[in-house]
Amino acid sequence: MSYIDEHKEQLMNDLHLVIRDAEEMLKNTEQQSSEGFRAAKEKFERTLKNAKAEVERIEDLVVTRTKEAAKATDVYVKENPWQSAGIAAGIGLLVGLLIGRSR
FRET partner for 41 with CA separation of 20 to 30 A, picked from 5, 50, 57, 91? Predict the structure, then answer.
């Protein structure tokens, strides 16, 4: 998993945690009865519902794009095996050189 993927996953986990915490907070405020509080609570519930839907939409989009990228990579490798092997060897060489320098 790449550095960016790890951060995306952490962000999604954090968003899920915030949503869970907010839902729990709403459950714990059932006894509040002032009109202003009820209006604020309803607005917050709508915002929370929209945030959950957006998180789900983003997750679906990321999964779809990841599958498309994997499919495109697979097609490229099958159509260009020698170029793919050369690219992989070049990347391996660069990584090896970088590791060798850091020691």
Answer: 57
Non-local CB neighbours of 51 within 8 Å, separated by 6+ positions: 15, 19
- pLDDT band at residue 77 using 50, 70 and 90 as cut-offs: confident
Flag whether pLDDT at 103 surpasses 70: no
Q: Which domain holds residue 88?
A: 3-102
Give the count of beta carbons closer than 10 Å to the beta carbon of residue 38: 12
The residue with tokens 């907010």 is 22
Task: Write out the DSSP string of 65-84.
Answer: HHHHHHHHHHHHHHH-HHHH
